Structure formats: C-alpha cells, structure tokens
Amino acid sequence: MIHKPQGEFENRTVYYFANRHHRGEVWYAFWDDEGRTCFTMNRDIPGLLGEAEYHDNGEVHILPLRERTPEELAVMAKQTEEHKKYRQELYKRYSFADRIKDLKR
What we know:
Oligomer: single chain
Shape: flat
Radius of gyration: 16 Å
Mean pLDDT: 85
Strand content: 15-25%
Strand order of the largest sheet: 1-5-4-2-3
Number of helices: 3
Order of helices and strands: EHEEEEHH
Largest sheet: 5 strands, antiparallel
Helix content: 40-55%
Number of strands: 5
C-alpha cells in the first residue's frame, strides 16, 4: 500500500519520518486515536498497519510485518551505523548559518 498523507499533520509525520530514519532501520506505520497515520520504531504498539518504507520520491510504502533472521538484523544494524556516520559528516559540512538560510527559502 502506498501512503498518501492527508492534511498538515500527516505531512509533518512523513517529513519527520523521512528525516529521522536511517538506512537499515525498521519503522512501523499505525493510526492514532484520530485515524491519522503516524510512524514509530516501536513494534509493541497495538494495531500496526505494517512496516513503513520511505522512497526518495516522497512516497511511503506500507509493507506487511515480517520477522528477520539474526543475519539480516546484523546487516541492517551495520547499514544503520554507516548511515548515521554519513549523516554526521553531512552535518559537519553544512554550517548552521547555511541551514538557517535554506530554511528561509
């Protein structure tokens, strides 16, 4: 299923998800009490819709929940650490002043 955000709240949740997730992490989609789609890394929330997968074109695909082997989890953990290091390097090169300028555009 491809999630299409409905309204400002869901646009913000997709933005948050897109900017917070790292390659190798598993995020989940669920509906809050008002029926809005939200995203979390907590698999213990009742009524999960499935695993959320963000695509560079802005789409969020919601896939069925699945169990992973220890080998898959190890590869994913390595990918997450590599991605976090990559993002840290980007932030070092992207000055705070430039970030503020870009926000005003």
